[in-house]
Amino acid sequence: MEIGDKLKKLRKEHNYSQNDLAEKLHVTAQAISKWENNKSVPDIINLVQLSELYNVSLDYLIKSDKELQSKLSLGNFRLEIFRYLVLSIVLVLILPVIILTKAQFFTSSHGLGTWLFIGCGLLFIIFVFLSLYSYITKKKHFIFSWISLLMLSFIVFLGFFYNYIMAVLQL
């Protein structure tokens, strides 16, 4: 028996509608329908919640479904990538601060333009990582990609017209 059939059977045994179950799991009713029709599978977090809700073991839900087991192992791979992503975010955000501190950047006064460059650079880095995170978790990553591209364009624009912008701001 595939997992979709098991989930449908368990939902009906516990007298839940797809909407009721969707509310309990914080997903859409369409997601429940896709699971039950074997068009997609729940992630590991939802599987744990389902096993607790129906008072069945995870083993019961996934043991006979080899395809689901392979997808879950792919999910573990994504989790590993996510860990490396978080580590790289920390390094990318801390490393410039260490370099700037070592170069005694913070001990001298800088103009507005310098701080604009640094702020835009940090925002660009943050949005690039948000885009990567969204891509890994299979969420809509295009918005963060566009914002990253916009921030990069702004940094380039600021670089080309730095002297003019600073002259206008000094008026």
TrEMBL record:
Pfam families, per database record: HTH_3
| Residues annotated as domain HTH cro/C1-type | 7-61
Residues annotated as coiled-coil are: none
Which PROSITE patterns did the record assign?
Answer: HTH_CROC1 (PS50943)
Transmembrane portions of the chain = 81-100, 112-136, 143-165
This protein's UniProt keywords? DNA-binding, Membrane, Transmembrane, Transmembrane helix
Note the InterPro entries from the entry: Cro/C1-type_HTH, Lambda_DNA-bd_dom_sf
What PANTHER family does the annotation carry?
A: DNA-BIDING PHAGE PROTEIN, TRACRIPTIONAL REGULATORY PROTEIN-RELATED-RELATED
What name does UniProt use for this protein? Helix-turn-helix transcriptional regulator
- Organism of origin is Paenibacillus hexagrammi
